[in-house]
Amino acid sequence: MRNYTSVTEFTLLGIPNTEGLENMLFVLFLAFYLFTLLGNLLIFLTILVSSTLHSPMYFFLGNLSVFDIFFPSVSSPKMMLYLMGQSRTISYQGCACQLFFYHFLGGTECFLYTVMAYDRFVAICHPLRYTIIMNPRVCTGLTLGTWLGGCLHGSILTFLVFRLPYCGPNEVDNFFCDIPVVLPLACADTSLAQMVSFTNVDVVTLTCFFLILTSYGHIVLSILKISTSEGRRRAFSTCSAHLISIFLFYGPVMLIYLRPASSPWLDSVIQVLNNIVTPSLNPLIYTLRNKDVKLALRKVFTQMAHISGA
Q1: Which topology term describes how it sits in the membrane (predicted)?
Q2: Average per-residue pLDDT in the chain?
Q3: DSSP state, 85?
Q4: Phi and psi for 71 in degrees, rounded to 5?
Q5: What is the mean pLDDT of residues 218-247?
Q6: CB atoms within 10 A of CB 39
Q7: Least confident of 23-37, 64-78, 97-111, 291-305
């Protein structure tokens, strides 16, 4: 059995080619992060208190808002600390936790988008049976399934990466710990871990994406059969926000994990979009594109104004 001097901490190198821009990036990322937290919290609370939004579609949207609060919180606080001049080091356990929660929440969100696509499929293709098929027990079961699936996904990937010994270089070429930048630091053969971990990510991503495309393929066919243009427009409007969110989520994921070649600078930029920018856009997408949410938000603000004025 070999003796290794185990690495106890890693150094995050941050976003490449951004020297001298730390203060500007800190202000920019802090603004995005705060907007993400407040926007998604507002969406979640609005769905919680508005009886008109107590339906399967908004139940899943509420879950998405929760994930969009947690997901950027995996990497943003540590990144903003070192942009302020604090230590760039992260403990071995902290690095493992970052990787686990990143893929746990990312996997959960991937599964949730698939469930949301199925919900839209049932609503548009089987409207008369919608409340029977998407009953509270089914919705709860599907949501628990996304959480458990994401947890299993994150656990497998974290085990594969951190079962290897780390004894040499400890510089992570990114602003947080992820598989493509941590695995090359292992002082052992990483080929099996690399193959299994990337296969796991690829299979989950592509399977969910295929199921979403299948659902929307049926949805498009059903919408085209609607005789009135107003009916078609209304049906498309209920799906448009979800489709925009899907492309914003899957685009960066596929660019990072499905590309044959890797570029540290491009990967960091894509990760910034995925971790910080996209979660901040979802509240805008779902409020600007959804009349029910906008109406519920107005009622919440009106009630708050009455309470504060009383």
Answers
A1: Multi-pass membrane protein
A2: 86
A3: T
A4: -60, -50
A5: 81
A6: 21
A7: 291-305
The sign one gets for the Cα dihedral 154, 160, 165, 167 is negative
Residue 170 CA to residue 11 CA, distance in Å, equals 6
Distance between alpha carbon 35 and the CA centroid of its chain, in Å? 16
Position 130 scores a pLDDT of 93
How many Cα atoms within 13 Å fall on the side-chain side of residue 109? 28
Side chain identity, residue 60: F
| 34, 98, 216, 223, 261 from 288: Cα distances, Å | 19, 32, 22, 22, 37
Query: Is 163 strand, coil or helix?
Result: coil
| Structural contact between residues 232 and 226, judged by C-beta atoms closer than 8 angstroms | yes
Q: Name the pairing type of β-strands 171-172 and 9-12.
A: parallel
Whole-angstrom distance, CA of residue 278 vs CA of residue 163: 32
Give the DSSP per-residue string, 41-57.
HHHHHHHHH-GGG-SHH
DSSP 247-301: HHHHHHHHHHHS-SS--HHHHHHHHHIIIIIHHHHHHHHHHHS-HHHHHHHHHHH
By the 8 A CB rule, do 193 and 161 touch? yes
Token pair for 145: 């399934």
Q: How confident is the model at residue 5 (pLDDT cuts 50, 70, 90)?
A: low
| Torsion angles phi and psi, residue 261, rounded to 5 | -110, 155
Is the pLDDT at 1 greater than 50, yes or no?
A: no
Separation CA 149–CA 107 (nearest Å): 7
